[in-house]
## 1
Amino acid sequence: MSERVKRELSQLGRSASIPENPDKAVLETFENPHPDVHYVVRLKAPEFTCLCPITGQPDFATIIVDYVPGKWILESKSFKLFLGSFRNTGIFHEDGTVYIHKRLKEALDPVYLRVIGFWNVRGGISIDVAVESGRLPENCRPLPIRQD
Amino acid sequence: MSERVKRELSQLGRSASIPENPDKAVLETFENPHPDVHYVVRLKAPEFTCLCPITGQPDFATIIVDYVPGKWILESKSFKLFLGSFRNTGIFHEDGTVYIHKRLKEALDPVYLRVIGFWNVRGGISIDVAVESGRLPENCRPLPIRQD
Amino acid sequence: MSERVKRELSQLGRSASIPENPDKAVLETFENPHPDVHYVVRLKAPEFTCLCPITGQPDFATIIVDYVPGKWILESKSFKLFLGSFRNTGIFHEDGTVYIHKRLKEALDPVYLRVIGFWNVRGGISIDVAVESGRLPENCRPLPIRQD
Amino acid sequence: MSERVKRELSQLGRSASIPENPDKAVLETFENPHPDVHYVVRLKAPEFTCLCPITGQPDFATIIVDYVPGKWILESKSFKLFLGSFRNTGIFHEDGTVYIHKRLKEALDPVYLRVIGFWNVRGGISIDVAVESGRLPENCRPLPIRQD
Amino acid sequence: MSERVKRELSQLGRSASIPENPDKAVLETFENPHPDVHYVVRLKAPEFTCLCPITGQPDFATIIVDYVPGKWILESKSFKLFLGSFRNTGIFHEDGTVYIHKRLKEALDPVYLRVIGFWNVRGGISIDVAVESGRLPENCRPLPIRQD
Amino acid sequence: MSERVKRELSQLGRSASIPENPDKAVLETFENPHPDVHYVVRLKAPEFTCLCPITGQPDFATIIVDYVPGKWILESKSFKLFLGSFRNTGIFHEDGTVYIHKRLKEALDPVYLRVIGFWNVRGGISIDVAVESGRLPENCRPLPIRQD
Amino acid sequence: MSERVKRELSQLGRSASIPENPDKAVLETFENPHPDVHYVVRLKAPEFTCLCPITGQPDFATIIVDYVPGKWILESKSFKLFLGSFRNTGIFHEDGTVYIHKRLKEALDPVYLRVIGFWNVRGGISIDVAVESGRLPENCRPLPIRQD
Amino acid sequence: MSERVKRELSQLGRSASIPENPDKAVLETFENPHPDVHYVVRLKAPEFTCLCPITGQPDFATIIVDYVPGKWILESKSFKLFLGSFRNTGIFHEDGTVYIHKRLKEALDPVYLRVIGFWNVRGGISIDVAVESGRLPENCRPLPIRQD
Amino acid sequence: MSERVKRELSQLGRSASIPENPDKAVLETFENPHPDVHYVVRLKAPEFTCLCPITGQPDFATIIVDYVPGKWILESKSFKLFLGSFRNTGIFHEDGTVYIHKRLKEALDPVYLRVIGFWNVRGGISIDVAVESGRLPENCRPLPIRQD
Amino acid sequence: MSERVKRELSQLGRSASIPENPDKAVLETFENPHPDVHYVVRLKAPEFTCLCPITGQPDFATIIVDYVPGKWILESKSFKLFLGSFRNTGIFHEDGTVYIHKRLKEALDPVYLRVIGFWNVRGGISIDVAVESGRLPENCRPLPIRQD
Ligand SMILES: [Ca+2]
Ligand SMILES: [Ca+2]
Ligand SMILES: [Ca+2]
Ligand SMILES: [Ca+2]
Ligand SMILES: [Ca+2]
Ligand SMILES: [Ca+2]
Ligand SMILES: [Ca+2]
Ligand SMILES: [Ca+2]
Ligand SMILES: [Ca+2]
Ligand SMILES: [Ca+2]
Ligand SMILES: [Ca+2]
Ligand SMILES: [Ca+2]
Ligand SMILES: [Ca+2]
Ligand SMILES: [Ca+2]
Ligand SMILES: [Ca+2]
Ligand SMILES: [Ca+2]
């Protein structure tokens, strides 16, 4: 593993505070150390929370990201802070999931990207939203999804 | 997220009573905030109940809806009230599941729509019914089904 | 098994309609064929539903009954109809569970009785209520509870 | 739902005895209320039992039926009685599963039909048999199988 | 292990047919090879079936037996045939479970005995019955019960 | 169920905003409709979140409350708002769980009270904290805990 | 079911001893009663054991066989004895699984055949081996695999 | 950790062959490094196999050992070889479990000892046997049992 | 929550390296903010690893700590570093678990303390070790254990 | 099974120490005994650990390898030592998984190869990485993945 990567990610070992809202959060990346190989990366974040834009009540979700990196890899601490920035933001399930997909697509310019939000039950009904873009290259099978 | 959506859905934070029967229930929608993106939405409702049209005894089911929105998103509270309106209605498993599919298709005019009813055991036998219409666009994989 | 029991329960094989409300429902019993033995009976009913007395919205629960019969055994079809009679009745979780316990105690006069209601999530919070009376005789261990 | 269907199925609310053997059992059907829609129906019967034709010992199985109705829907009570008629009949696992498939095909004339028998362990080995006919139309995905 | 036990159980390796009814079934035993030790034996039989004495419809149950042997051990093949003899017998859940307990108590004269019947759902309600006699000696903890 | 209870809880059907912090949140109660019966109530809230007082990073927990009511029952919507008020408050796992216990004890004056916090993994280690007060009366068995 | 099949399998009800090694074991078959239908048969044997050819220590595995019968059906008791014959035989995981596949292919001449061995953990690592031959005919979907 | 223990157990890193039968197997021990502390040790062996003494067919079991060491600790490799020595030995479930208990008691002279055998299903019935001796000292709770 | 606690734990937000071995690791504590209340704290660490003192091969375990604090609370980051310090240390299962118990007892001087190590399978056998000291005060029930 | 294979793998029964780092570890192979058959081999290693290259803290993962052998089979003990050599090596999740794939590809020259790393949660987020090369031949279906 290269020394360059260590320098790029020098804030990984340091503390950082949650951004005020998603627009202020920065998604950091580092260079894909294997740009010649197509592979699939999954990040699973079961601790997502935001607010209902109508009632102001908290909503909770698990966010799954599957992507095939192009030139860039998502730095997971900045992703955690990005997700944390929704904490006091009002947003609908569908809108929020599509927004996360859009931000990751901008930041990573990946070969393939899927974002899934599994939102907790409200009024006896749960909602899941899946947004996908790009195309899976040969030799890139998405991992199975256990979340229901 | 737009202010318009908030106005459209102004009844989300207000109380509402269960319609007398499914024909009287109104399925509300709001405008898809991302009509340029194909994505999959799942609603899972494990608290569905109606009556057997022959014996008058209660039946119970879990209803799963998967759809790819076109211009409209299903407002989940109106969907909850719609499902609640079957409470004192007599309907067969097959007929009820197809009816829900038909009503959602009319209300949403979606790119793709699947309704599945998982009906509880009666006489040692359970019945599941799955009704599907439209075609999944590229980049729209249905989420896995855990219900048995 | 005695012929007398068959006569007592002559409505088991016949159809019956759901009583209008719990006060109108009759809990039937038949004579304990083994009054000299202390044993434990559990009935588990995962298909209970009633209405919230404030909002009128449907509530759902699993009801578990554990009892040590004295002179009487609960006839399960009349119990099913009794539970079905809550369908359009407004009642709180705590109140409803205690009421079921009270009605069973009156009907069965059992040596021991426990009623547990496991009520589905509302607003991200589930509520369980357990009401117990009498005392477990020697050689009567309650079966474990898997419901969560 | 139509009044005609109620008349067709007038025996649903009445008692009926188990046929002596599968050849004497009648599989009843009622008219598909939605012949213009292709949909999938699953019946799952975990309480199947018959006898080993060699040793006379009881065998147990779960039977799963998946079909796409054409003109007819399977009436589930007659299906239960049909399965019950194997109770004192000797039949091998493979033979029995294929026989059930054949009888359902005759009775339903379905667009697609699959019968699976999951037979309990004997001598440390379990046997599953799956028989399929017809072709799944567009928009008809079989539901997943959880049985192992 | 003693040669005597082999002679006593000489029918274990031979075929045997299901008795016509429980009264005609014989529960065989063999001598406890360790009468000086108190230990717990569990037999679990998930393939029990009988008939409803009112409707004639099949019922299904899992039977669990826990006992501390005195002078005798239950021969498991004769127990299997005993359970098989209920196949065409009409009996209620409570009555059947107590009857099995009574027959085992007579045949084994055990230090402690518990019989539990876990009966499948009928009309949305399952019934479990537990009958216990004798007293657990020191150093005899019953194994946990996973059945629900 | 009494009309008085409905009046007392008149805000249940109305919207309410999350208090700024736990000290500003009010835990509402209503009169126990069955003060003569000892019974156990469990509330399970899997959507608790607060902040680490050192790093400012979000923490997540499931909160379980078991209590035997005396004169008062906890109104669950005010409990939800109370839990929601920790959202932007920094507090340690042990301190937070004991604080919730103290507030509930003050508000409910219950016969028995247990609060358990199951806190999510941090640095590969999860922490659970259980605080209990009072004494379980006869006929009050706590329900089993499935959380791990 | 035909009388001929009963004669062919006359040893099913009789005792038989474990062959000394796999080469001495005979895989028996009987005629496929439905040669005109393509269907899938699965045998699952979780009680396989052999020896490590290097260390002589026992190895354990679950063996799953999926096949589409041609003219012949595998007689399951001879298959059990065949698997039992590995008990004191040294063989590697890969070699053993391929050998079982080869023997079944010779004995059954099936339309399709897959053998999977799920071998227990050794040194913190488990090994699974899957060998497949032939081609699944139309209307023959392999059952899902739950083994991990 | 002491150097003495390493010398005592010098065969742990070396290969060893399975003893011909249980009587020839030696259960090795090493000195309890903490004889002043009462603690509980569990060994779980899911790969036990022996033969049925009547039919010669293989039997399979999971063996669980719980003990409170006195002066000696059980060396786990010698325990593995001891269990392996049953491979070609005919023994009944009850007899085998009691025999393992007796051998461990002789070898370890423990403060408390429990041996449980969970034997696989034969003829649709599984058998578990639990043998316990000694008394659990204060501060020694047995770990829960998940095996069913 | 007090400012003093924040100062005491000022290294929580800072990086720290793994100690060379357990003897060099320091278990830090902070003052129990509720010394007047008896409560139970559980720490669960599924990522423990050390070396076999004989073969040098890695061992893996889950460590569970249950304690009733007296004057001190265990700081979880120092506990993580303490567990990490076993990474290149050779120690037996029994010895290691007792050692962890001893170190925690010294550092915390708790009212009650239990340490359980669930060690992964080696040679087909897993080992669990449980060490307990002190006495559970009134109102302190240990949480259930799910680990197997 | 050939004698040659036994000679090739003569170190399987002997002890070996963990290599200092992955570059020093040797992946051993033996000749595929069935080069004429295409089959799938899976190795699952749930005990992988390395260090974070930035913070020096331990990371944990489960590594799954699926391959279709060409001329060579992976010797599993050398694979275990190879994985063990990461113990004190700093490497990122993505980089480490791709590195393992590269080394296996070099050593095995397989027809098809997939390496998946399931890395434990850090900061509330887990990461999985899947790297695949070659093409699955006909009759080679990858086994399902249960890891989540
Ligand atoms: Ca929404
Ligand atoms: Ca969900
Ligand atoms: Ca129907
Ligand atoms: Ca179902
Ligand atoms: Ca619940
Ligand atoms: Ca057969
Ligand atoms: Ca099965
Ligand atoms: Ca049950
Ligand atoms: Ca803390
Ligand atoms: Ca937890
Ligand atoms: Ca091998
Ligand atoms: Ca496995
Ligand atoms: Ca036996
Ligand atoms: Ca078992
Ligand atoms: Ca374990
Ligand atoms: Ca994972």
Note: The radius of gyration of chain C is 16 Å.
## 2
Amino acid sequence: MPITPEQRDEIDRLRAATYTTRRATVPALEEILYQPIEVLDHGFVRVVDYMGDDSAVVQAARVSYGKGTKKVSEDAGLIKYLMRHRHSTPFEMCEIKFHVKLPIFVARQWIRHRTANVNEYSARYSILDREFYVPAPENLGAQAVVNRQGRGDLLEGEEAAGVLKLLRDDAEQVYGHYEEMLNHREDGTQIDPSRQGLARELARMNLTLNYYTQWYWKVDLHNLLHFLSLRADTHAQYEIRVYAEAMLDVVRRWVPAVFEAFSEYRLGGTSLSRTGMEVVKRLLAGEPVTQETSGLSKREWRELMDQLGRAE
Amino acid sequence: MPITPEQRDEIDRLRAATYTTRRATVPALEEILYQPIEVLDHGFVRVVDYMGDDSAVVQAARVSYGKGTKKVSEDAGLIKYLMRHRHSTPFEMCEIKFHVKLPIFVARQWIRHRTANVNEYSARYSILDREFYVPAPENLGAQAVVNRQGRGDLLEGEEAAGVLKLLRDDAEQVYGHYEEMLNHREDGTQIDPSRQGLARELARMNLTLNYYTQWYWKVDLHNLLHFLSLRADTHAQYEIRVYAEAMLDVVRRWVPAVFEAFSEYRLGGTSLSRTGMEVVKRLLAGEPVTQETSGLSKREWRELMDQLGRAE
Amino acid sequence: MPITPEQRDEIDRLRAATYTTRRATVPALEEILYQPIEVLDHGFVRVVDYMGDDSAVVQAARVSYGKGTKKVSEDAGLIKYLMRHRHSTPFEMCEIKFHVKLPIFVARQWIRHRTANVNEYSARYSILDREFYVPAPENLGAQAVVNRQGRGDLLEGEEAAGVLKLLRDDAEQVYGHYEEMLNHREDGTQIDPSRQGLARELARMNLTLNYYTQWYWKVDLHNLLHFLSLRADTHAQYEIRVYAEAMLDVVRRWVPAVFEAFSEYRLGGTSLSRTGMEVVKRLLAGEPVTQETSGLSKREWRELMDQLGRAE
Amino acid sequence: MPITPEQRDEIDRLRAATYTTRRATVPALEEILYQPIEVLDHGFVRVVDYMGDDSAVVQAARVSYGKGTKKVSEDAGLIKYLMRHRHSTPFEMCEIKFHVKLPIFVARQWIRHRTANVNEYSARYSILDREFYVPAPENLGAQAVVNRQGRGDLLEGEEAAGVLKLLRDDAEQVYGHYEEMLNHREDGTQIDPSRQGLARELARMNLTLNYYTQWYWKVDLHNLLHFLSLRADTHAQYEIRVYAEAMLDVVRRWVPAVFEAFSEYRLGGTSLSRTGMEVVKRLLAGEPVTQETSGLSKREWRELMDQLGRAE
């Protein structure tokens, strides 16, 4: 269960209250405001606040271009133009705040994105809950051979079962010892009243990296899109990609025209090197080109053929 | 007149429309939303959007401290605690967006604050208006002698009149030449249809630094307070300080508990050096201390005596 | 003359002294260390310090990949891989510090790049020199008609002469008045001993935007390359592009393998949209495609045909 | 053993080579360049590169103040002035790069400091070593009662022994299972050739937070000092404080004048609130003040009395 009954009550309370505002408001996003979107076995992501909409991007761009742009009459067209030419500052004019519950090893990848505001649950102050991530069997990939950081075939049978058992048992055991060191039971009572219990800031080091943490994460739309372009990508680890995909859906609700442009130019876009572009031109001119005559390494040639959809 | 009739209409239109939201909403800030607050002779600052309120700071801090802080029952107390101990991340959870019209030389100081999002009017794309800043006579300070970056006595009489005339005449003249180079009249027509007119990106270089520009400036509350602590300070140049003071008023409306804590611990606070604190302790112990026996330089001694309110 | 005799002496003094270090050192960059590279009519850029070399990028990447990358034996290959896959953090491990003298309107574009450290000459403290930029006749472009922020044909004859005269005369005049308001002559004496002189922080507002300022600008290699990819681009204003081009040469000396990869994948690279890539695939498959059947707007179609080198 | 024999050889090789440079060089820092300073049971911090020295701070400040500051003749005095008045940009002109080996739970605190460049060992690519942190008995603090995030008395006797045994045994066990899931022995061979082994990016989640990771961390002097002012503080967790203290020693070697000023005004400095300062003035005027008449809360009164060295 990703959220506690207390959190559920709090969410219901927040969702029940409405206010009158003069600010730009997005009904499709208001609809899901505060609602947790479940991710992995115990995680979630939920929007807790936002600022701006598609028009806020346009409004900012129009300040930059002043009277000079009266002719650009269509907002979606302007947004596509900005995205295509990497004019990023107007996208910084929208802001969103998420509450995320995620495994610690995912949090460690996520936090590399520095241009964001974060408040994380502190295990120095408080005791972490007994919640840890265990992959579903269909995500239990073997080490990839070619791509050193990826997954290959699925583990199966006994090997898979063995891995899942080890992960579960170790996580359970270290949590039991965490409580023992803290001299603390889940109901808040002490295990042994004659002991003091280890400091929380020390005891936490006994937990494994699949334990869940949570944080508020606030970011502007430009930096969110940058995050999503890296983390909703097939090269990203599955466990962070599912968060990115949930957030992509949020972006679609929030700023549909920006989402459209982002899909066309960034998520669905392709980068070609100088030499790769020369190859494309030669091919278009009807010249036969092979890896040997292309000027590309074998790896780059393979990547280019993939991009061009040419089975080799 | 700081705003154009078109801007006035746009503001009235925006203020007339209201929406229903589940987001945290601050009625005292809604009241002035979009309204320009006049600053200097043609400038303004106005709030065009915001995210969060006092409670958003508390909410973020409570995520950090988790269950461990149930006892801190009072929000204002928690906010004071955070401010006193420089726990800055919860203040980053609020965001505000201003539209500002300001002289270019003020914009050049302002932009040094890097942790903010900016979209500025572009004089590459568009033609700047004929609006420039001229100080009011009561702000026409002479160069300070001791403080190399400050102002001393007011200029008076002929000297003051001469300065004002030079500033006005030069600004008028360079604008006339700006239009002449652009081959462009304010009504949009060409001066001489046989000429092409210089590129805007070049012609603008003929304008003086007191011409007004404008931008959208979006910032989180922590970085806004940092900006205000430097720019609402008596060491800041008057022309940026008046913007900071107008924004301080906005902060008071928006997040009154944060404003209270900021006034007590930052704006009204004092930093003492290690040696300065030793002097205070010796004085409290009844020991007579002079600059010579204090271990402080003459300048630091004078600053400390000022801070302690001891006329020398 | 871009540098003063005092600066020349200082540079000669610095260049004459050598030290022994265990740090990574780049002889080709040491060769030009401290030497001003002239840019525009009075500007310059010069390297005053640096940290790291090509190997520092590799070293950082190897820490990330640990033992797992023993097979990537070739440094230049690894650098190309990092550049191609936008693994940017290893490039942040090199740092460079420039001293730049540049017109204020160029400084205003430059400062938008926020991830850098800057110390600028302060006209609150000190008096600016009588040095301003006037374009060479071959850079005196007319306003472009299609591209609202660009330049078109060159101005010629009387129109060009008129513009140059206006720029020069206005700049001279405002400087004269600047000194008059300051009550200050270039030799340091007062014009009228009975006057106080206006505060510097006010008098500077009378200068035009083509006056030169200077700053120290320190940046990591990743952010420098991002700056160069935008500012060494044909869409950048000529007056900032010449600085970017001078700095590109510095990068070539400093980190030749990084420069090579940057040229291949970024400067010389091409981005295609999802639909643009579909068009390329259809063309390669021998299908005739027109703008009408392409799914692209007229503008995007024209851009794509340009990229593919297909005259229409 | 914090470093491997391969690392030792690499360090010796680097230290043996010297180069000639025109850059500012600090012999006292060169002396320890590349040398690991041991921290905790298996960690270290070592300087791998640096840019600038005390003079670089002065040089940058002098650019800002231009000719206006000829009178500030003494460098140390200028550095103290900059530190006292929080003119931070000149301190950004120095840069340093550390290689750090540290437990993951320490890395998670450290990474909150966003204004730095980081390349961390990736457990997606590579296999982590069997090295984990276990506190020395003299650091095994009990949970503090008043300060929810701190440590109180030391654990003793059986309780201490029990904690150390749990930490060690769990860390050993999860590493054994890590290898089993990876199907990998430390010598590089497979445990069971018929199995594929779990992907590294998944297996790592079974490790506890006291396992060591390592990274390159590059930061400018201003942000380093900010980090040190928070992390070399008594409120910081012991396990990060020892790293901060080792780095403080590095700062003392590198930029002694900056270190001096930092100690006087920041590390050794005191912040007083508006009301706290009023109390000091009243006490100095001979007025008796109690908590009740002070306007301070009990907690703040206690903190102020502590700062003033007045036992209550």
Note: The first strand of chain C starts at residue 19 and ends at 21.
